[in-house]
Amino acid sequence: MKAEADGAALDARDHDYLRRVVPHFLAWKDGAPFLYWFGPQPRICLFDYESVRQVLWNKSGHFTKTDTHPTILAMLGKGLVLVEGTDWVRHRRVANPAFAMDKLKMMTTTMVSCAERLIRECEELAATNKSGEVEVEFSRHFQELTAEVISRTAFGSSYKEGKEVFRTQKQLLALAMATLLNLQLPGFKYLPTKNNRLKWMLEKKMRTTLMAIIQPRLASKGSGFGDDLLGLMLEACFMTEQGEKRDELALTMDEIIDECKTFFFAGHETTSHLLTWAVFLLSLHPEWQERLREEVLRECGKANPTADMLSKLKEMTMVLLETLRLYGPVLTMLRKPISDIRLGSLSIPKGTGIMIPIPILHRDK
Ligand code: HEM
C-alpha cells in the first residue's frame, strides 16, 4: 500500500494529499472510527465531529494530553501545549498579557519590517536578471522570515541569541523525526546511546542559550523586563492574580525556559508552512492573486500595513483560512481519557489514545 502511495503522482490542483500520505488511514477508516497500535499504546482514530467536539470541549479535565516522545519534549518544552490542569492555568495567566490586542498591534511593526526586508531581497534578486524575473524557493524564505519575526517579537534585542535556539531546535526536530517510530522501551531514554547523547547535548545547549537571554533580564528587574514576549511574560510572573506585585516568580526558571521553547516552535513552523502553502495556492489561482492585490491596495494604499488595516483584509483572511483547511500545519491532536468513557456508540477504556486527524476532518465531502 505504501509503495503504491509513494509512486502516486499528485496533480498540483489535487489537494487531496491524504491518499498519498496516509493511505492506510483511508483504507482502515471505511466510514467509522478504527483502532490501531502505536507501539504498546492502543489509539482510536475519531472521524465524527460530535465525538471530537466532546473531547476538545470537555472542561472537566477528563481528557488529558498523551505522553510525549522524549525528543519532542526536549524540543518543545513542557509549556502550554503540553501542561495540564492547574499548571496550565498558571502558565496561561503568565502568557496571556503578551497576547493582548495592544501588544500584538505593537508587534505588527516588527513583522512588517521583517516582511519588507524579504520583499527587498526578492526584488534585488530579480533585478540581477535581465527579464526582471527570478525563481525563488519560498519555503526557505518563509522559514527565515518567521524565524526572524518570532526571534524579534519574543526576544527583542536578544534576537540573535534567539536564532541560535532555532538552530538547536531544528536539530532536535530532525532527531525526533528520525526516532519517532522507534519502540520506546521503559528506561531506554536514560541509556547513553548515540542519539540520546546527541539529544542531551542539544537540550543542554538550548537551555544555556535561553538562560543567557533570561538571566540579564531578571537582573535588570528595576528597569523593566522589556516589551517583547519574554519581557511581558517575566513581568506577568511577578504579578498576582489581583494585580499586586509578588517577590517570587510565578513560574520556575525551568518552566519559563520551556515556555520560550514552546512559543518558538509553535510560532515558527506553523506560520512558515501556512505562508508557503498560501503562496502555492495563489500561484495556481492568479485570479485570486489579483483580488488580493486589489484588496491590499484598497485598504492599505501604498503604505506599509498597520494592524488596523490588516483586520480589514477580508479576502486575505478567507484565503488564509482556506489554506489552513487544505494544508493546515498541525495534522493531529491527541488526548487520552483518565477513566473509561462512552463517546457516542463507543466505549473507550481509560488511557486509550484518542487521535483527531485534522486534515481528514477538513475534507469530509
Ligand atoms: C498557522 C498557525 C498556527 C496553527 C495552525 C496552530 C495550531 C495549533 C493547534 C491545533 C493547537 C492545539 C494543540 C493541542 O491542544 O493539541 C495549538 C496550540 C497552541 N499554539 Fe498554535 N498554531 C499556530 C500558530 C501559533 C503561534 C504563532 C503561536 C505562538 C507564537 C502558537 C502557540 C500555541 C500555544 C502556546 C498553544 C497551546 C495553547 C494552550 O493550550 O493554551 N501557535 N496551536
Describe the structure.
It comes from Panicum hallii var. hallii. This is Cytochrome P450. The protein has 365 residues and is an alpha+beta fold. Helices cover 59% and strands 8% of the residues. Strand 1 (34-38) and strand 2 (41-45) form a beta hairpin. It is globular and about 60 Å long. It binds protoporphyrin IX containing FE.
How many β-strand stretches? 7
Q: Could you say how many structural domains there are in total? A: 2
Shape: globular
Give the radius of gyration: 23 Å
The proportion of residues forming helix, as a percent range, comes to 55-70%
> What is the H-and-E element order?
HHHEEHEHHHHHHHHHHHEEEEH
Separate helix tally: 16
Mind telling me the CATH class of the largest domain? Mainly Alpha
> CATH H level of the largest domain: which superfamily?
Cytochrome P450
Catalogue the ligands. Answer: protoporphyrin IX containing FE
In the predicted model, the low-confidence regions spanning at least 5 consecutive residues are none
Q: SS-based structural class?
A: alpha+beta
What's the CATH architecture name of the largest domain? Orthogonal Bundle
CATH topology of the largest domain: Cytochrome p450
- Average the pLDDT over all residues and give the rounded result: 89
Largest sheet: 5 strands, mixed
What is the straight-line distance between the termini?
Answer: 23 Å
β-strand amount: 5-15%
Strand order of the largest sheet: 1-2-7-4-3
GO biological process, one term: lipid metabolic process
Subcellular location: Membrane
InterPro entries: Cyt_P450, Cyt_P450_E_grp-I, Cyt_P450_sf, Cytochrome_P450_Monooxygen
Keywords: Heme, Iron, Membrane, Metal-binding, Monooxygenase, Oxidoreductase, Transmembrane, Transmembrane helix
